[in-house]
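quick one before i forget lol
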Amino acid sequence: MGKNKYNKYNVLVINRLSQKYGFTGYYIRQCLRGDRKNLTADQLRKEYNNLSKAITKLLEES
């Protein structure tokens, strides 16, 4: 039997998106996984990727 692969999402980014858009963290994770397919989900995915890359870049510079 193989192991299940779990996605690890940046909690800081999820919380920020939750505050900004008023959605729950669960809904945002569904959008990131691809369970939700609408314009808002696409926008959340793009913004999550941008914020996550910005945090990674800042951490690498330190």
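fyi The chain has one domain: 11-61.
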